[in-house]
Amino acid sequence: MATTSPIAAVDRIDRISPSQRPTGRAIGYQKWTNLLFVHWKIPIGLVQPLIPPELTLDTWDGQAWVGLVPFFMSGVRPWWSPAIPGISSFCETNVRTYVHFRGRDPGVWFLSLEASRSLAVRVARWRWHLPYYRARMSLTRRGDQVAYASRRLWPGMAGSGCQIRAAVGALLGHDSPERALPPGRALPDTLEHFLVERYILYAQVAPGQLLAGRVHHAPYPVREARTTELEDTLLPAAGILPPEPPCHTAFCDGVEVEIFPLKPV
Question: What is the pTM assigned to this prediction?
Answer without folding.
Answer: 0.94
